[in-house]
From TrEMBL:
It is found in: Cell membrane. This is ATP synthase subunit I. It comes from Cytobacillus spartinae. The keyword Transmembrane applies. The keyword Lipoprotein does not apply. The chain crosses the membrane at residues 12-28, 34-53, 74-91, 97-117. Pfam families: ATP-synt_I (PF03899). Keywords: Cell membrane, Membrane, Transmembrane, Transmembrane helix.
Length: 125
């Protein structure tokens, strides 16, 4: 599934761009708790995206070989979300809870935006 790897690499670049903007915001503004929450949430969101891409690749290989198909790892992705929220609740003076939650949703937002951009680009060709 080389196209899946290309999609993952493209989306990873977008998330790294967002993370670099968040780091600049953390370093140069007075909203450090908000940007630190965004950094934590988006970092774990990138980890979840990596897990999803890896599990999807293994899922495709198992289907092609006719083997038994396992899950796509929803429990592990939910566990990282719970970990992020627990950290935000434990350290409210350092991490803004809502920005952690928004950061966790970043990869899904990037997936949707990337899908629409690719659909628009393929339609205009």
């Amino acid at each position: 599934m080389p196209e899946l790897k290309a999609i993952y690499i493209r989306q990873r670049k977008y998330i790294f761009l967002l993370l670099s903007l968040y780091v600049l915001g953390w370093g140069f503004t007075s909203y450090q708790t908000i940007f630190l929450g965004l950094i934590l949430g988006t970092s774990l969101s990138l980890f979840n995206l990596w897990l999803l891409a890896r599990k999807t690749d293994k899922f495709g290989e198992a289907v092609a070989k006719g083997e038994k198909v396992r899950s796509l790892g929803m429990l592990s992705r939910m566990a990282t979300a719970v970990l992020a929220v627990m950290l935000a609740l434990e350290y409210p003076d350092k991490l803004h809870l809502y920005s952690v939650i928004f950061g966790l949703m970043t990869s899904y937002i990037v997936i949707m935006i990337d899908f629409f951009l690719q659909a628009f680009n393929s339609r205009s060709k």
